[in-house]
Specification:
Length: about 160
Protein backbone atom coordinates (compact mmCIF):
# COMPACT_ATOMS: atom_id res chain seq x y z
CA UNK A 1 0.00 0.00 0.00
CA UNK A 2 1.24 3.41 -0.82
CA UNK A 3 1.70 6.09 1.79
CA UNK A 4 -1.24 8.10 0.47
CA UNK A 5 -3.57 5.10 0.74
CA UNK A 6 -2.46 4.40 4.32
CA UNK A 7 -2.94 8.04 5.25
CA UNK A 8 -6.41 8.11 3.60
CA UNK A 9 -7.49 4.94 5.45
CA UNK A 10 -6.13 6.20 8.76
CA UNK A 11 -7.78 9.60 8.37
CA UNK A 12 -11.14 8.12 7.30
CA UNK A 13 -11.24 4.95 9.40
CA UNK A 14 -14.09 6.30 11.59
CA UNK A 15 -16.13 7.30 8.54
CA UNK A 16 -15.63 3.88 6.95
CA UNK A 17 -16.66 2.16 10.20
CA UNK A 18 -19.78 4.33 10.44
CA UNK A 19 -20.71 3.58 6.82
CA UNK A 20 -20.31 -0.17 7.40
CA UNK A 21 -22.39 0.10 10.60
CA UNK A 22 -25.17 1.90 8.71
CA UNK A 23 -25.17 -0.79 6.00
CA UNK A 24 -25.37 -3.49 8.66
CA UNK A 25 -28.17 -1.61 10.49
CA UNK A 26 -30.23 -1.31 7.29
CA UNK A 27 -29.78 -5.04 6.69
CA UNK A 28 -30.88 -5.86 10.27
CA UNK A 29 -33.93 -3.57 10.08
CA UNK A 30 -35.01 -5.19 6.82
CA UNK A 31 -34.70 -8.64 8.37
CA UNK A 32 -36.62 -7.56 11.49
CA UNK A 33 -39.41 -6.02 9.41
CA UNK A 34 -39.81 -9.25 7.44
CA UNK A 35 -39.88 -11.29 10.63
CA UNK A 36 -42.49 -8.96 12.17
CA UNK A 37 -44.68 -9.22 9.05
CA UNK A 38 -44.58 -13.01 9.31
CA UNK A 39 -45.41 -12.87 13.02
CA UNK A 40 -48.34 -10.55 12.32
CA UNK A 41 -49.73 -12.96 9.72
CA UNK A 42 -49.34 -15.82 12.20
CA UNK A 43 -51.07 -13.82 14.96
CA UNK A 44 -53.92 -12.97 12.60
CA UNK A 45 -54.33 -16.63 11.68
CA UNK A 46 -54.34 -17.64 15.36
CA UNK A 47 -56.91 -14.98 16.21
CA UNK A 48 -59.12 -16.04 13.31
CA UNK A 49 -58.88 -19.68 14.32
CA UNK A 50 -59.63 -18.93 17.97
CA UNK A 51 -62.59 -16.74 17.06
CA UNK A 52 -63.93 -19.37 14.66
CA UNK A 53 -63.64 -22.10 17.29
CA UNK A 54 -65.43 -19.98 19.91
CA UNK A 55 -68.23 -19.09 17.50
CA UNK A 56 -68.64 -22.69 16.39
CA UNK A 57 -68.75 -23.94 19.98
CA UNK A 58 -71.31 -21.31 20.97
CA UNK A 59 -73.47 -22.05 17.93
CA UNK A 60 -73.33 -25.82 18.47
CA UNK A 61 -74.33 -25.44 22.11
CA UNK A 62 -77.19 -23.12 21.15
CA UNK A 63 -78.49 -25.44 18.42
CA UNK A 64 -78.77 -28.26 20.92
CA UNK A 65 -80.62 -26.21 23.52
CA UNK A 66 -84.23 -25.75 22.37
CA UNK A 67 -85.16 -23.99 25.61
CA UNK A 68 -82.44 -21.38 25.04
CA UNK A 69 -83.54 -20.87 21.44
CA UNK A 70 -87.14 -20.37 22.57
CA UNK A 71 -86.00 -17.96 25.30
CA UNK A 72 -83.95 -15.92 22.81
CA UNK A 73 -86.81 -15.76 20.31
CA UNK A 74 -89.31 -14.79 23.04
CA UNK A 75 -86.98 -12.04 24.31
CA UNK A 76 -86.54 -10.68 20.77
CA UNK A 77 -90.30 -10.77 20.17
CA UNK A 78 -91.66 -9.61 23.52
CA UNK A 79 -88.76 -7.88 25.26
CA UNK A 80 -87.31 -8.53 28.69
CA UNK A 81 -90.04 -7.29 31.02
CA UNK A 82 -91.80 -10.64 31.58
CA UNK A 83 -88.65 -12.71 32.09
CA UNK A 84 -87.75 -14.34 35.36
CA UNK A 85 -84.46 -13.57 37.06
CA UNK A 86 -83.10 -16.95 35.96
CA UNK A 87 -84.11 -16.33 32.34
CA UNK A 88 -82.47 -12.91 32.41
CA UNK A 89 -79.29 -14.48 33.83
CA UNK A 90 -79.26 -17.14 31.10
CA UNK A 91 -79.72 -14.48 28.41
CA UNK A 92 -77.11 -12.23 30.01
CA UNK A 93 -74.51 -15.01 29.99
CA UNK A 94 -75.36 -16.10 26.44
CA UNK A 95 -75.31 -12.58 24.98
CA UNK A 96 -72.21 -11.65 26.96
CA UNK A 97 -70.42 -14.49 25.14
CA UNK A 98 -71.82 -13.16 21.85
CA UNK A 99 -70.63 -9.65 22.78
CA UNK A 100 -67.14 -10.99 23.43
CA UNK A 101 -67.02 -12.62 19.99
CA UNK A 102 -68.39 -9.57 18.19
CA UNK A 103 -66.15 -7.25 20.22
CA UNK A 104 -63.14 -9.37 19.32
CA UNK A 105 -63.89 -8.90 15.61
CA UNK A 106 -64.35 -5.15 16.20
CA UNK A 107 -61.06 -4.74 18.11
CA UNK A 108 -59.08 -6.76 15.59
CA UNK A 109 -60.52 -4.58 12.84
CA UNK A 110 -59.52 -1.46 14.77
CA UNK A 111 -55.97 -2.83 15.12
CA UNK A 112 -55.79 -3.53 11.40
CA UNK A 113 -55.63 -7.30 11.82
CA UNK A 114 -58.93 -7.70 9.95
CA UNK A 115 -60.28 -5.85 6.95
CA UNK A 116 -63.19 -3.46 7.45
CA UNK A 117 -65.12 -5.51 4.87
CA UNK A 118 -64.86 -8.56 7.14
CA UNK A 119 -66.25 -6.59 10.07
CA UNK A 120 -69.06 -5.25 7.90
CA UNK A 121 -69.94 -8.76 6.76
CA UNK A 122 -69.60 -10.58 10.09
CA UNK A 123 -69.50 -8.13 13.01
CA UNK A 124 -72.07 -5.67 11.70
CA UNK A 125 -74.57 -8.41 10.93
CA UNK A 126 -74.09 -9.90 14.39
CA UNK A 127 -74.73 -6.49 15.96
CA UNK A 128 -77.83 -6.07 13.80
CA UNK A 129 -79.03 -9.50 14.96
CA UNK A 130 -78.10 -9.35 18.67
CA UNK A 131 -77.27 -5.73 19.50
CA UNK A 132 -80.71 -4.79 20.81
CA UNK A 133 -80.65 -7.51 23.45
CA UNK A 134 -77.00 -6.90 24.32
CA UNK A 135 -77.89 -3.27 25.07
CA UNK A 136 -81.20 -4.11 26.78
CA UNK A 137 -79.46 -6.62 29.06
CA UNK A 138 -76.97 -3.86 29.99
CA UNK A 139 -73.97 -5.99 29.11
CA UNK A 140 -70.84 -3.91 29.71
CA UNK A 141 -68.92 -2.80 26.62
CA UNK A 142 -65.77 -0.87 25.90
CA UNK A 143 -66.75 2.74 25.01
CA UNK A 144 -65.49 2.48 21.42
CA UNK A 145 -67.39 -0.75 20.86
CA UNK A 146 -70.51 0.67 22.53
CA UNK A 147 -70.33 3.65 20.17
CA UNK A 148 -70.17 1.28 17.18
CA UNK A 149 -73.12 -0.77 18.47
CA UNK A 150 -75.20 2.37 19.09
CA UNK A 151 -74.34 3.69 15.64
CA UNK A 152 -75.35 0.46 13.88
CA UNK A 153 -78.59 0.18 15.88
CA UNK A 154 -79.47 3.83 15.19
CA UNK A 155 -78.88 3.27 11.48
CA UNK A 156 -81.13 0.20 11.61
CA UNK A 157 -83.90 2.22 13.28
CA UNK A 158 -83.60 5.00 10.66
CA UNK A 159 -83.81 2.43 7.85
CA UNK A 160 -86.84 0.78 9.44
CA UNK A 161 -88.58 4.16 9.89
CA UNK A 162 -88.03 5.01 6.21
CA UNK A 163 -89.18 1.59 4.99
Amino acid sequence: MSGNTKKFLADNFANIAIALSVVFLVFELTQNRRMMERELIFMEAQAYQGRAEMAMELNLETIGDWDLIELILRAKREGLSDLTEVERKVLFDYFNARRILIGNVFYQTQLGLLDQEFFDEVGRKAIERDGELIVALEIPMNPAFREEVDSILAEMHRSAARG
